[in-house]
Amino acid sequence: MKRILITGATGNVGMEVIKSLHKMDHTSEISAGVFDLVREKIKLQDYNITAVHIDFTDIKTVKAALQNCDVLFLLRPPQLSEVDKYFKPLVSWAASFGVKHIVFLSVQGVEKSKIIPHHKIEKLIVDSKISYTFLRPAYFMQNFISTLHNDLVNHNRIFLPAGNAKFTLVDVSDVGLVAAKVLTEIEKHVNKSYELTCNERLTFAEMATQLTSGLGRPIRFISPNLIKFYFTKRKDKVPRMLIMVMIMLHYLPRFQKQPRITDDVRRLLNREPNSFGQFIKENLRGLI
Fold first, then answer.
1. Which of 1, 29, 114, 132 has the most CB atoms at less than 10 Å from its CB?
2. What are phi and psi of 258, to 5 degrees?
C-alpha cells in the first residue's frame, strides 16, 4: 500500500487535494500534515485520513512524518522563504528515509525566476535524485476569497498595482484534482512538470468586469502606485512581508512577457479547466 503525505493539508490547495482523493477509487494510505493537531483535525473528520503534526520550523516533526511516507505532496508555507534553512534538510531527510516521489506545488514561470523560493526548492528536489512531479499553477482565482477578499467585500474594488498586465488564472479545485490524479498515478508523471492554467488571460480590469456581472454590484479596479499601495495595506494591518509578496506578484508582471496558456489541465483531467466566470458562479457565497 502506497503511503501519501499531504503537507499544508488544511489550506486551500491541501483541502482540495484531500477532497479529490476522497472521491477517487484508490488503495493509498493518506496522511495529512497539519500544524495544530487539535484545531485542524476537525477539518479532516469527514475523510478517511490520519492527521500528523508537522511544523516546518521543527525538523523533529518533519523527520517523524517522513519516516512513514512513500510519496510526499510538498506545499511551501508562504511565510517560510529561507530554503537552505527549512527545505534543504527536509529534502535530505526525505532521501534518507526512502521517499520515492515528491509532488511539489510550485508556481508558473518558476524556471525564469531564480529569486523566488520555489525555484531553489525545485533544484533541491532535482539534485536529490528523488523522482518528482512539479505542478506550476497560474494565479489562483481563490485569491479573491483570501488576500483580495477585504477590498472586494468592504470596498467593492480590486486594489493592486497591476496596471494593464494580463494574468493567466487557475481554479484551485482544478489544481486539487490534478494533484490527486498525479498522486494516485505516479508512474505516469515521473520527472514531469505541468503548468496549470485556464483557457483565458485577463487583466484585473477585465476580472472586475466579470465580477461586476457575476456579483450584481459594481466592482472597480484601482491600480495605485507602489507607495500608496504599501501604506494603504499597512493601514489595513497587512503584514509587511505579505505586502512585498503582493507587489512581486502583481507589479512585476507589468514588465514581463505575458504568461502562457497551456492545455495541461485539459490533458490531465480530460475536460476543459474552469473559467473565471465559472469560478464566480460556483463561489458566490465566498465572494459576497
1. 132
2. -60, 135
